[in-house]
Amino acid sequence: MNRKLYHGAAYYPELWDADVIEQDIKIMKETGINVVRIGEFAWSKMEPEEGQINIGFFTDMISQLYENGIETVMCTPTPTPPIWFSYDHPERMFVDGQGTVMGHGSRQHACTNNAYFREKAAVITEHIARAVGHLPGVIGWQLDNEFKAHVAECMCQTCKTLWHGWLEERYGTIGQLNEAWGTHIWSEYYHRFEQVPQPAPAPFLHHSSLRTMYQLFSMEKIAEFADEQAAIIRKYSDAPITHNSSVAFHVDNERLFKNLDFASFDTYASSTNTPAYLINCDLWRNFKKGRAFWIMETSPSFSASLESYAAPHPNGYLKAEAVAAYALGAEAFCYWLWRQQRTGCEQPHGSVISAWGKPTVGYTNVLEVEQARKEIESVLLATIPAQAELAITYSDRSKAYLKTEPHQKLNHRGLVTAFYERFLTLGIHRDLIPEGADLDGYKLLFTPFIHYLSPDYINRAQQFVEKGGIWVVGPLTGGRTEHHTIHTDAALGQLEQLAGVETLYTYPMDGTNSIGRAFGESAPLGMWSAVFETKEAAAVGIIEEGLAPGKAFITEQKYGKGKIVMLGSMPMGEEGDMLLKKLIGHYAGEAQLSLRTNVTQGTIVAPRVGDGYTVWVIVNMDGHGGSVTISQEGYDLLKQQPLFPGKLEIGKYEYRLIQFEDTRRY
Length: 666
Known about the structure:
Rossmann fold, nine-stranded parallel beta sheet
């Protein structure tokens, strides 16, 4: 890709005639759109009858766009197989958890594991790649669209056969599966892999191992499909390949992006929930470390379908979103969609241009984004996001465990986002990192809500602590094996010995009137919890009231040059929020984090590093304005004037770029 910041939109030229396309391109140029994404739902346009493939419309479209200074991300159209694929072929279709076979229409109606689907997907992808892969306007590829957004695990016969093969490859023998899962419970013992069912409808709950492993199987298979598609494209194109994913989908993003070239995501977080927006930036920055991510979809105003709609963004918010994303490592900020759809199920969805070709309520905000992009581009291209000193491990595989065992209907995305928000409000620059990420460069590591910690992860975290890092483990972490069973050597397995504790009890603290005290704060305790007896460790948080008074729910163990901290229970409510912030602040101080500001809530600081200098990109996200204390002399790059130490006020949705010399000071 060329070195620039991209400002783009999803475009569906197959839905419009030549005059409309010409009008669209003219307005795109006026608006500052420099990249579009095309082709993702256009299989029937490319192959209206089986075997009759013609990509000419799209090669012409790419050339027309390029001649007008607009580059293209080309998509594979596999989320929407045509009617010739679906009609009278239920064996090719997705089957949900209740056994319902999907019909034609909407999208994601086919089973992506079906052999015929894979064959036809490979054929159409090869034709597209051969036709457009050499075109100079194609700067990137997107595979499919939002894998597993509307569907989860397929229960068709194809998947059942593949499931048995996956189990055999994983466990080797049926005896080893029986042993690992403990299948003598409820007479669930199996004699052959073919006997292991899918977690389809049952009178009560399925075995935890069965349900969790089936989710992991499904995640692996969709990633394998992405790998196949990418391999085909690479035969004809050097342009980098991605997929537009989300933490909300039924995928393992770490595995999905493993063999892709850059990471991208879609988000429709509301303006009142900026943590849900920013968490994506701090996570996607780390799926392909050192490579800028893309926001492939966000609404210029509001999201909607035939059945629902969200509140439009306030004027000014879109600009704040875009600047924050670019500052946190995005190369592109793209809308869904350019021209409002006149048909289909998403007709009401917010767009840049209406179906009748006029500006929408979000149009002026899109113009503001383009003005901001031009204003900040040179500074951001000369810098990179600063390496965070604090990391929070994120795991889509743990999402599978929580789906199997949700306790009181806990939601993984909600849990993680609420936990993340506390670091945001404390002004600490942070990374969310996948389980397999390198821990070099970090001083403080948090590992919340990860039921199963692999030996590899524990070993890397142990080495991190030995070198001087502080590792905060929990809550809801380490209490399950890789097969989603309970440890039999200790409640939290090998983690307890490392942490110098013995877990006395695990139980739900909700409703027990348990109160914990730590760091000078008392708060109610909740969620599924672990109660500790200290061995080598020291008790830091004590249960004052409840079923286990006097026992520890937070412990510290010195280990090598660092420290392991166990957080066994979740502090709840406003008091709990204060206690957690005190905990984070305490260990941030011990770890001597330097990338921390006293920015007011609702405003962020994104630090970026250049050659011998640092730039703070400061953005107000809540529309109320804010402030941040400047501790050394700097230079305001937008106002082009010196900035002296003191409180810097930031206006409603305002952004500022402040340069400081010497990256050793913040």
